[in-house]
Amino acid sequence: MDYHYLREHALHALLLSDPKQKADYVKHMVHNGPFLVGADVVLTESPAIPGRPSKPDIVPPQQVKQRSLHNVTGRATLLHALAHIEFNAINLALDIIWRYADMPDAFYGDWLCVAYEEVLHFELLNQRLKAMGYSYGDFPAHDGLWDMAERTKDDLVARLALVPRTLEARGLDACPVVRAKLAQAGDEEAAAILDIILRDEVGHVALGNKWYRWLCDQKDLDAILIYPDLATEYRAPRLRGPFNIPARQAAGFLPEELAYLQKQAN
């Protein structure tokens, strides 16, 4: 397999189950470009997508316990949840590269950059967990992000609308709150990691907005008008405030979209 066929290698990385191997492979891809996007990728069998380790145990969201951040175990539980989100985000970026054909080359390059930054976030969180005596896989986790990816896998418009622009954009709202709690608990190292994640996630959500609107234009769809229908059809969660309006504006949300968001939260 020619290394420079990006979409084939994105699928290979997606199927890797070991987090370190997956992270190393993504970094290797980034450092060994440039790439040809490649033709359609055909699966000759039905592998488990995404590849993931045997731990953490995946449970319903209500079974993921919240604990006090004023002890090491409580903070480790929170950081583990964030690490799982970042691990899923690596897989989401790889999945969008291999799954959807006939997009501009820049689309695939953009999401490879996202995968790389999600790798860096995952590694920072896992390093902090190890410094606290834990590691990724030590606590149960839920799979809300990947569940939405599964629901939207046959519709790239819906995927862009509801994964980066909806579920991942929730991180823009949550990051400052979580950062403040970690700092208040005295964990400045973890708080600094949240600063990096928020900075990068603004760019990731902005890419979701960019390519959602581009694809809507190509299909002669009104990006603003169709969003509520997509949210209903694919059972997107109703978002609750408070919202990080400056971060959402920096990520390219339009005034009409922010007004809709506020209305839905009331």
**Mean pLDDT, nearest integer?**
91
What structural class do helix, strand and pairing data support?
mainly alpha
Low-confidence blocks of residues: none
How many beta-strand runs?
Answer: 0
Instruction: Please indicate the count of domains.
Output: 1
Helix content: 55-70%
Largest sheet: none
| Mass-distribution shape | globular
Features:
single chain, 266 residues, Ferritin, 11 helices
Textual characterization of the structure:
The chain is an all-alpha fold. The chain has a single domain, classed as Ferritin (Up-down Bundle). It is 65% helix and 0% strand. The chain has helices spanning 6-15, 19-31, 72-99, 105-131, 144-151, 156-167, 170-184, 188-218, 223-233, 245-250, 255-265. Helix 2 (19-31) crosses helix 4, helix 3 runs antiparallel to helix 4 and helix 6 (156-167) packs antiparallel against helix 8. The longest helix is centred in the C-terminal third of the chain and has 31 residues, at 188-218. The model has no long low-confidence stretch (mean pLDDT 91).
